[in-house]
Known about the structure:
single chain; 215 residues; mainly alpha; 6 helices; 87% helix; elongated
Amino acid sequence: MTRNKFNEELKQLLNSVRVMGVNLEDTLDKVIANLEQKDAALAQQIISDDDNFDNSEVNIEKQCLELVLTQTPVATDWREIASCLKLVGDMERIADHCSNISQYTLKLIEKEPVPLPDNFMNMLQVMRQMVYDSISAISENDLELANKVIATDDEVDNYFAEMRQHLTTVMQQKPQYVPQYVDYLMIAKYVERIADHSTNIAQWVMFVVKNELKN
């Protein structure tokens, strides 16, 4: 394989990662909107579509292996290929959590509606921006965006800690709503995990660009 052919296939690999990222953004927007809309059909669709992300991860892994097996990559190539493997793993986990959240959305649909927890939508929007920024950082090898994502992770952690305390108080005051607020607490935990995976993606972008991982 010529170097030009290798570069072309590496470009195709990176494009596959970007397409997976765009699809993930679309799914995440549906998940967040549905936490307010409570549409059972949409929740079921999100859960079913999770298989598409599993397939994307497998296909990208195959592309990575083909690149490794057909030509001995140089050091910078290895960083990009290895990072793609890690990136798609984190994106697939985010898709899994989107499915998990939708399963809890279905549970909430079956129960009496309750007010959303304090700052719940704010936490979701901060997480959403982290995902968008991390995926943009992949496309542009943008260190500034990657650093922004890493710095924002604490904000989501703080929202989760505050929400956990708030929901503990609410459940004591309104025990009849404990099942609903347990569901919201589980959703918030998945939101926190999505933020963590976004941080992982940003760290791998830094590894590609600067050959270093930020703790």
